[in-house]
């Protein structure tokens, strides 16, 4: 989606008539007005790897999932990986966990003893007391809960395939889902890509998600993956859809390899027309995570976005600046893909570099591929003589066009002057 060039109007209410000029003494230096910053951008996400909207656009043009993957991860090859059980963190630091099953299920504790549990809810606390006959028993942690035939286990109301391990951390509990790779992906792909998209795009997502999971297993922790965007969005049974399950099944076991190892297949929403290299965004180079043209990305509603407007005081507060904000300058700081690593922040106390990633977080922007426009109209000092000549100073930079208008009542506006683009 393309937006029209930014058009901003500088307005000043003048309680005087701009008539024939009259002689007047020189005016004192004006008081700098509060600048208005307009931030416009392209894309959504970090920009490295596969653009999901780009995959969608390619699928609409009839390209297959392997062609899509080859474009975004050049030099990789499709191969099959052996299935394995993953450990996905569902919850930690909980004083209690609500486990439920629609059918009878079982649990095995650290001693190997098996407990038969009835269908329905089970409330677990740090003592791991189990309601078994003839009397409740305190299990030895960790406790592995196994689903019964025909019914997945639910943790705090959300159903998951596979088993659930409950470990004790002092007075708190941790729940980990023990699930096969392919069953895990059934709950990931629809959480990462709209299930109504073309099958070839969903298959590309399935391979990317499978590869990313295997290449990003956590080390030194009692689990392999998080169930959120720290790893991948994993929603369990509730999010599964026939279309995404089909995409997982038709690519079963397929991963991308580079140099004989599973590739770390980063992906994101929208490129804005070009993906970014890992070197530009993450600070490390990868031969298959390089900047690539992405014309198919135009189908995204986030291909271009903005402007988002901020007053100088609001923007300074969001950036945590102690001095008054005067300007943001990104001149010459863009990476080859157009995204910023940093930008210069000019305040009343001086100038400093500000990381673009922090700018994105602080302002809630969709990406770091941004341009910043600024408008400022300074306020004259002293008394203005009726019918006299008035000199206005200000700044219009990084905008497609700007105009100056005057009004005596705030309702009817008359043009005063046309301003040059990027003019002080």
- Unreliable residue runs: 1-23
- Structural class based on helices, strands and sheet pairing: alpha+beta
Number of helices: 9
Strand order of the largest sheet: 8-7-12-15-16-5-17
Choose one word for the global shape.
elongated
Helix content range: 10-25%
Gyration radius, in Å: 29 Å
Q: How many strands?
A: 28
> How would a crystallographer describe the biggest sheet?
7 strands, mixed
Mean pLDDT reading: 90
Looking at how many chains there are and whether they match, the oligomeric state comes to single chain
The proportion of residues in beta strands is 25-35%
- End-to-end CA span: 31 Å
Give an account of the 3D structure.
The chain is α+β, with helices and mostly antiparallel strands and 424 residues long. It contains 9 helices and 28 strands. A 7-stranded mixed beta sheet has the order 8-7-12-15-16-5-17. Strands 21-2-25-26 form a 4-stranded antiparallel beta sheet. Strands 9-6-13-14 form a 4-stranded antiparallel beta sheet, with no helix packed on it. A hairpin with a 2-residue loop joins strand 15 and strand 16 (172-180). Helix 1 packs antiparallel against helix 5, helix 2 (65-72) crosses helix 5 (199-215) and helix 5 crosses helix 6. It is elongated and about 100 Å long. 38% of the residues are buried.
